Amino acid sequence: MQTSSRAETTRGWFGWAQAPRLSVADVAAMLWAERALVLAVGGAICALGLIGALAAPKTYTARSELIVRMGEEYVYQPTAGGAGAGATPDMQTIVNAEMRLIGSGAVVRGAIEGVGLAALYPDIAASPASDGRKLAAAERAFAEHLTIETAPQTPAIGLSFEHRNPETAALALNALVQQYLSHRREVLVGGEFEALSAETTDLSGRAGQATSALSAFLAEHQIGDFESEFAALAARSGDIETQLLDAQTRRREADARSAALRQRFNAEPEQIELYQESDARRDLVEAQMERERLLAAYQPDALPVREVDRRIAQLQAFLAGGDPPSITRRGPNPVRQDVASQLYAMEAEARAQRGRETALEQQRTEVRERLRAMQALEPRFRQLQRDRTILETNAQNFASRAEEARTRSQMLGRATDNISPVETASVPTQGKSLRWPIMIVTLLIAGIVALAAGLSRGLMRRSFPTPSSAARALNTPVLAVMPRRQDPKQAKTKPPKPEKAKKGKPELSVVEGGA
Predict the structure, then answer these.
(1) What pLDDT score was predicted for residue 261?
(2) Which residue of 86, 152, 231, 508 lies most exposed, with the fewest beta carbons within 10 A?
(3) Sign of the C-alpha dihedral, residues 472, 477, 480, 483?
(4) Which H/E stretch holds residue 120?
């Protein structure tokens, strides 16, 4: 059996940290032994938390809500061309853009200037910093107390602003909304008219320069209307070619007819017998004519008619015996004369067509030279004309766009139908303070820190306040507990190494109470 001195020396090498197992009772005993420290630490932290909770200011939250609808400012209007015109973004994109616009620095600065820095943040206004630093600090403070939120797939934006003064909170939030509505007009449609007007002026000036260059080009080459003159020359060239072919054909035809008429003219005699005259034949003809006149007044068997028939029969019998000699007359051949007239006409026609052919060939040469000259000038003319047309067309398009932008800007300046305040900010009547959250958090922190301090100090002690912990640590049964008599201030000496227990004999220990 071991003596108490042996147990005392063994106890000096063990403590809470060397205990193999700690029960809930051991932990409670340890904390109870260090109750002074636990209460001191917990009380100090609770006092600090109470002071902080009492010093926490009371804030008031003003709230407002906006409804967002699709507006004309979000409809895509291309600056040049018409590709993609009328395209619109989805509603969630528009709401996100409006939220970013509300929280932008320009809107926040405008709201701060509208309310006044001294009224909104008097501490910042009274600081000795420069105006720029004061405004930057105020913007950061305003952004920290401003909350902008929305729900997914909901065209509504909720705004809230916290401040110590309820009137200032409502005033600042309403000023923010007004500044946002004013600023969004300038951002979305405010500068488009000026930009389009400036571009229209520039394009008009360049179009005037292009027109002057084209006019100078036409005057330099003595051209009135290039298109009309070029088309007229091309048509004239084709007409001259047609007339030249016609003249050549007519000339060849006239030459061929002249040659044929000359052969006929040479083959015809100059004079021919014109006619022969006979008295018997003339009397016969007269008698026949007289009989016809009588038949108009008498019957065929009347005496005057029979007398004429008798005379006609005598003349026919006389002529039947042979034609007596008659008088023959000769004169110019009319056929030869007609052929000569035609020959002279064809020769004149041939000479006329030959002269016409020569004149047409000269005209064709002149027209072709002028046409080649205009064809050489055509690329330069087309370039000048194309530049002028493009500039004039773009100038007209930009002028129309500028007028539309001016009208749209004026309409949006008078109304904001697509952004409607569902609820304006009113003065909040109930404030919000962080006293209770601070106190609860302080209590939790005080409890945790106090328990940690008590457990740490108890684990560092080299004593066993309970017999069960000593028995577990020394692996020996505890027979009695005696109060500690050693002065805790006495210098500690290094205990001798414990002797090994004899085999087969249990050791008994006497432990002094650590309490």
Answers:
(1) 83
(2) 152
(3) negative
(4) helix 117-120
Confidence of residue 275 (pLDDT cuts 50, 70, 90): low
Strand segments, DSSP code E, in 5-50 are: none
For tokens 């260090």, name the residue.
Answer: 34
pLDDT for the residue numbered 189 = 61
Beta bridge partners of 332: 271
Residue 505 pLDDT: 40
pLDDT of residue 5: 43
In 3-state terms, what secondary structure has residue 514? coil
Q: Are 416 and 181 in contact (CB under 8 A)?
A: yes
Please give the Cα distance from 147 to 99 (Å, whole number): 10
- Neighbouring C-alpha atoms within 13 Å toward the C-beta of 305: 11
Taking the CA atoms of 196, 202, 208 and 210 in sequence, report the sign of the dihedral they define. Answer: negative
- Calculated CA dihedral for residues 89, 92, 97, 103, nearest 10 degrees: 170
- pLDDT score for 446: 81
Report d(CA 250, CA 355) in Å as an integer: 12
Query: What mean pLDDT do residues 403-409 have?
Result: 72
pLDDT of res. 214: 83
Share of the chain above pLDDT 70, in %: 73
Query: Which amino acid belongs to residue 458?
Result: G
Residue 43 or 26, more confident:
43
Token representation of residue 145: 């107390």
Q: At what angle do helices 24-33 and 435-460 cross, to 10 degrees?
A: 100
With 0-12 CB in 10 A as exposed, 13-18 as middle and 19+ as buried, what is 333?
Answer: middle
| Contact by Cβ (8 Å): 61, 160 | yes
DSSP H helical ranges for 1-104: 4-11, 24-33, 35-55, 91-102
Q: Quick check: 19 and 473 in contact, CB under 8 A?
A: yes
Which tokens hold the place of 364? 């064709």
Looking at residues 87-96, what average pLDDT do you find?
78
Please state, in angstroms and rounded to a whole number, the distance separating the CA atoms of residues 293 and 334: 36
Per the CB < 8 A criterion, the answer to whether 90 and 154 are in contact is: no
Q: Are 431 and 58 spatial neighbours (Cβ–Cβ below 8 Å)?
A: yes
Average pLDDT over residues 201-219: 86
Length of the chain: 515
Structure tokens at 335: 């056929």
- Mean pLDDT score, 313-317: 82
The neighbouring-strand residues paired with 217 are none
DSSP β-bridge partners for residue 329: 275
